[in-house]
TrEMBL record:
Pfam family, one: DAO
Protein's UniProt keywords contain Oxidoreductase: yes
Domain of life: Bacteria
Residue intervals of the FAD dependent oxidoreductase domain: 9-162
Stored Gene3D superfamilies: D-Amino Acid Oxidase, subunit A, domain 2
Record GO terms (molecular function): oxidoreductase activity
Transmembrane segments: none
UniProt entry tagged with the keyword Oxidoreductase: yes
Originating species: Acinetobacter baumannii
Name recorded for this polypeptide: FAD-dependent oxidoreductase
High-level lineage: Bacteria, Pseudomonadati, Pseudomonadota, Gammaproteobacteria, Moraxellales
Keyword tags: Oxidoreductase
Length: 199
């Protein structure tokens, strides 16, 4: 059961907590997710729009946001959790696109005219997402720690999570499943060998 602020009670067979770094407040022994600041930029590119169905990846990325704006990014600053939009990050994003598409980049408006959004990624210590139950018999799971690989991992990890909840076959090999396991950071209690005295 989940009680909301207005005293409404919601019931579900299973709950999945997807709260990035804040997930730790709801579980014991949750892995420490480190912050990584990232800023995306968008800018008017009505002079030469890109196809809406295409994205470009080049160490950064860009794609057509709408009929007149290009979105590109993203900066990557580990151990920072500030979310102010910074000119330096626009410059960084410009330099990324300029390194592979210099002619196109030179036609973009000056970075002082760009807009943006900064947010904080949550990254696990081993750079793999944290997926599944924190306790074996629990009906509460977690899904966090995707860092900068959300587009890559989110669809596959969602399928892994659904398979776990429904008790179905996993869509990934056991070796990958172990790397995603939410319990992988918990210290395992090793059984102690009994001490025997000879009599």
């Amino acid at each position: 059961q989940l009680k909301s602020g207005n005293e409404t009670t919601l019931e579900a067979d299973h709950v999945v907590v997807c709260c990035a770094r804040e997930s730790a407040a709801l579980f014991e022994n949750y892995p420490l997710l480190k912050p990584i600041r990232g800023q995306v930029s968008w800018v008017d590119n009505s002079f030469a729009t890109l196809p809406l169905h295409e994205a470009y990846s080049y160490g950064g990325y860009c794609m057509q946001l709408n009929t007149s704006e290009l979105i590109l990014g993203a900066s990557f600053y580990p151990n920072r959790d500030d979310q102010e939009v910074l000119l330096d990050d626009h410059v960084h994003n410009f330099e990324l696109i300029h390194s592979v598409f210099p002619h196109y980049a030179k036609q973009l408006p000056p970075v002082e005219q760009w807009q943006g959004r900064a947010s904080v990624r949550a990254q696990s210590p081993d750079y793999f997402p944290v997926v599944g139950k924190m306790q074996n018999e629990s009906r509460i799971s977690t899904f966090a720690g995707l860092g900068s690989k959300g587009f890559l991992f989110a669809p596959l990890c969602s399928e892994v999570l659904v398979a776990q909840i429904l008790g179905e076959a996993y869509p990934v090999p056991k070796s990958l499943l172990q790397k995603l396991d939410a319990q992988r950071f918990q210290k395992k209690v090793k059984p102690k060998k009994p001490y025997f005295k000879s009599q």
